[in-house]
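Attaching the record inline, Q. Sequence:
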Amino acid sequence: MLSDERVREHLFEAVIISHLRYMPLIRIAPENMGYIITKDEEELVDGFAWYLDRSNRLVLLAVEAKYTQKDVDIREIKRKARILKEDFHIKRLIVTTNHKTLEIEEDYAIIPAEIFLLLM
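Structure, as predicted:
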């Protein structure tokens, strides 16, 4: 099964997104999870969750899981991050990847899956 790249992509995405519900520091209720689809029916993020932090501030988590043999398409990430910021007022897109790349920018962060799973 794992020799099929599509199966690996979906399995990777499922692990990352299911982790949102069971984050060690925060419990996110199932009704506070979803995804964002634009009017053009484009899926902007694989997982979206929200919660109130200890200061009663609303925290929005937009997570995109990218399992790929090639490098992550930065143009696509920047485009999605811009749409999230302009249309949905979400500060940063969190992109988890199977690569060892760690890149934190104003509109997006690319984080290896291992770090995402440990910290989130």
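The radius of gyration is 14 Å. Residues 50 and 60 are 5 Å apart (CA to CA).

More tomorrow.
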